Amino acid sequence: MSIDVLGPLVGRQSQGPTASAAIDEARRQLEICNACRYCEGYCSVFPAMTLHRAFDDGEVTQLANLCHNCRGCYYACQYTEPHEFDLNLPRALAEVRVESWERFIWPNGLAALFQRSGMALAGALFGAIAFMLALAYGLRPESGEGFYAVISHTVMATLFTVASILPLIVIGIGVWSYWRAVGGERVKLKHLHDALIDAGRLKNLSGGAADGCNYEKEDRYTMARRWSHQAVMWGFLMCFAATVSGTVLHYGFGMEAPYGPFSLPKLFGVPGGILMTIGGVGLIALKLRAEKSLGAPAVWGGEMAFVVLLTATALTGLALYWATGTGAVRPLLIVHLGTVLALYLTLPYTKMVHIPFRLAALVRDAQTKRA
User: Fold this and answer.
1) Which of 43, 73, 103 is the last residue of a domain?
2) Where are the transmembrane segments (predicted)?
3) In whole angstroms, how far apart are CA 106 and each of 62, 120, 172, 174, 306?
4) Omega into 261 within 30° of 0, i.e. cis?
């Protein structure tokens, strides 16, 4: 595509008075990309982009949350710096994506704080561990076995039920606000099916190339990021299944923890913790090697702190499992529960929220494909 054709698109103005600078810049770049279409065979962003001739704020936000930041389009682009168009679509969409989470998740100030500050997450972690320590020593149970000799089952169940339900409510309201902003329609089963298949396969992390994406380096195509994400995702789901199975055993069959090595909670939880740890370490290593300027640099510290917190949750859980029956159970249980509590309470305000937002974006994308 010649510069003469693309030239008039440079500096296009916002289509709405409420647009932010990030949305304006992403719109400018999207319009240039839409005219060029060299990257049309890449991730889902580009086929979705071609359905529009202009992009309102909601469409820019939808495309931003559809983007997986694989960065293949940047390395393939002929209009990046030092070209006068100065395109960096991965960064432009990443900044809109983060801004959308901060805008739709209440309260906005907390979202901005935890997204942009690793120290804030560290403070939440230490505060949660201190709280669990005070709880363990201030409300010591008179009787109990295993973990419940440190903190009673009633206290533990009540605390974590509240700590898990409230963040889910906040996230649900935020996703609903996002859905309205991007023009989402009534969800049909086939839309949800398509989105879940896409999310489960993480196909967009292939970057449009059979050998993977070049997230780390221009000439280095690997599946490392896709595999690390899959390990974390499936590991997290297995740990969730372990929690659910433990709850069913406790309340449905009167079988209390600790459970044996061949029980459902252990058969789900141990492999799940191992997968989460391996995937988390992989993501940390990838993030350290990747170019910061191709993401949202302002939130790099917060994103890294979140991945560390997620990995620490799995790692402390595994350590607690191996320490069963020893004197290390009490301190490890306090540290693990504090880590889990910090993870739960900050869920709506960390990068973890990209999961429901991206799933909503995939559902919306499935709607437009089937329209």
Assistant:
1) 103
2) 119-139, 159-179, 231-253, 268-286, 298-322, 328-347
3) 19, 17, 11, 7, 19
4) no
What's the CA angle centered on 199, arms 276 and 263, to 5 degrees? 40
Residue type, 308: V
Residues 264 and 278 in one domain: yes
pLDDT in tens, 162-210: 999 999 999 999 999 999 999 999 999 999 999 999 888 887 777 666 6
Tokens 């990838």 belong to 286
State how many domains the chain has. 2
| 38 and 99 both lie in a single domain | yes
In this prediction, residues 106-110 reach a mean pLDDT of 88
CB 116 within 8 A of CB 299: yes
| Helix orientation angle between 329-345 and 153-181, rounded to the nearest 10 degrees | 20
Distance CA 94, CA 92 (A): 6
Question: Per-residue pLDDT tens for 337-362?
Answer: 999 999 999 999 999 999 999 999 99
